[in-house]
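Chapter review: from sequence to fold.
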Amino acid sequence: MTANIGVVGAGRTGSGIAEIIALAGFDVVLVDAEKQSLNTTLKAIVADLNQHIASGKLTLIQETAIICHITTGTDYALLRDCRMCIEAVPANADMQTDVQRKIRTAAPDAIIATNSLTLPIADFASHIAAPDKLVGMIFDFPPQTGANVTIVSGPQTSESTVDYVTAIVHRLGKAVILGTQDSLTDIKQHLFQTPHIQGC
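The token string follows.
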């Protein structure tokens, strides 16, 4: 499976998600409203990869190839060829809804996966087209070392969407936890009891 994967939001969570996607061999498009955030994120990714080189887990050639998998920018049009886009912006319902709409406009056929727990998937789905291609994709924090990704289906999320996201998670080397909106409270408790949680 090869495909472009978009990530919107260059904070600590979005940065970590973009890094592990590139490490898995996917081309990743990282979009953020602030160019400075994108520059900071790239520096952080390089610093993390340099630690892998120091420990013998990567070579300089491999690091260069991984960085070449990452495209950054502020224009949502960069997402047009993405099969899946991960929304990883701060937990603000209005902002997230706006971002998801912009993703859908730029990539009409893409799966949109939200990393947020602020609203039920059904609430987000009511505001965008193709709600069958909207799903929750909650990474343990930090994504680089977290073991699990929880996939949360909404009432209209299609089976094919869940299957595709599940396959991506496996390619990232993470374990899949399948949840529903009814299990959201348990998912929140699991995530916020994790010692590494420091915010998004």
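Two observations follow directly from the output. The longest helix spans residues 35-54. The first strand starts at residue 4 and ends at 8.
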